[in-house]
Please model this.
Amino acid sequence: MGTVNEPLVRLDSVELSYDGAPVLAGVDLTLRAGDFVGVVGPSGAGKTTLLRLALGTLCPTAGRIERARGLRVGYVPQLETVSWSFPVTVAECVLMVRSDRWLPWATRAERRAVTEVLDRLGIAHLADRHIRELSGGQQQRMFLARALLRDPQLLLLDEPTSGVDVATRHEMLHLLGHLHDDGMTILLTTHDLNGVAAHVPDLVAMNGTVLRRGAPADVMTPTVLEQTFGAPMDVLEHLGMPVVLDRKRHPRRPVVEAP
Amino acid sequence: MIETVIETLLEPFGYAFFVKGVVVATLAGALCGLVGVYVVLRGMSYIGHGLSHAIFGGFAASSVIGLNYVLGAGIWGFASALAINRVSRAHRIGADAAIGVITTASFALGVALLTVFGNRGPSFDAALFGSIIGISTADVWTLVAVSALTVAVVLTRYRALLFATFDPEVADVSGVRVARTDALLMLVLSLAILATLSIIGVTLVAATLVIPAVVARMLTHRFATMLCLSSAIGALCGLVGMNLSYHLDVPSGTTIVLTGATVFALVLMATGGRGLQRAPRAAVL
Model:
């Protein structure tokens, strides 16, 4: 883990275009050791692109990206992008990140490390199962285990709360909270506004650029959300946390006065 | 009665050319089965078909300029594979379209060259459909060398190849040199097609890459087991197919592929196609 407040990744006036069409413009974002950041925004806002820029699999069209020297990054992809018919077991999938070794088979130390990380995430009993036999939450945990096996300084997760039920979504965010408590730096993207408002201390609202960054109470405001999503949203406060209501789904009912 | 059957089955083994053919077909089947696992799992089943056609272009060009056809076609095939890889990775067009354009153009060029300048190398028919009697000692040694190289690559780059096949993006950020690994696989694939071309033929080599791997996938959900099973099934199809080729007097490529297709149908009936369900992929290659 890096020293707290040490910048791990810094995006400075970053722009990115696909075939001339701008996806991101003027993005400034710094991730420091110990940060736990959730990126929210509508589909097509450039959240995954931002993640890939931080990851280093995409290069910006303009601007600068600086990464800490020798930064180890763990990446958890979207479940929708995974080839679930691929013939691998959970343990084999997790072990993939140890690809620097030329031995085809796992050493005893590697098997122990895989068992430990799976055990830490509560899925050690599924090690010999095929990856398609897992539930959505277990699949997320498996990819998290794979990322953790690299002993990363920075953990990037693309939509870790999508494709799973509400309970699993909260379980995953709790788990990430525990990892953050242990010192892990985390950046995730999500559509689950209320989930991140409750579990993630630092939010980024974006739509082509970073519109606002701050604590949930600063980002989850009707003004910022309308600016981000282009639709009016209501925000209530419940137990000191903001709760977002989509006004289209929850239209304000006319107040009917009692006779 | 049984003695007569056994005698008939063993009769061709009295001919040196047939023994050589059986050994080569078995080895070729195992080699294609091994490489085919990566081809199938990358969703590139069409590449075997395409590359064999591209290599035919190289075969024709080498024949025209008097270059060793193994070397010429090998370089041509590898260049085509890299071009397909590069074009499809750019995401501008799909891998299937890239394969379609590059390899059919190469095949057409090959046919044009042979038509205009004539053939000075192996026969045109043998290159298209494979031949039991067209196998030279050089073919045997080429196949042995390519098989040894392929096994060495699969063993020493096992983890990198697996990761780059399953999840190229995460593999890339996890320290795997994905572009280099892909290029290595393309080289091995080109060499495997080239080394088996004379026995199986341009038009049928794709099936020997795909069928054993697909059958193996229906029988296991473990990658290492799939590699072993696919190689074994490929070898079995080569052995049985070559014997059928002799007894039925039809080109060896056809009988090897038909044997594979029969195995596929039997396993499909027995397993219901388990493991073959389609699923989305992160990247083309």
Notes: The radius of gyration of chain B is 19 Å. The interface with chain A takes residues 41, 155-160, 162-163, 165-167, 169-176, 217, 220-226, 275-282 of chain B (CB under 8 Å). The CA atoms of residues 122 and 134 of chain B lie 8 Å apart.
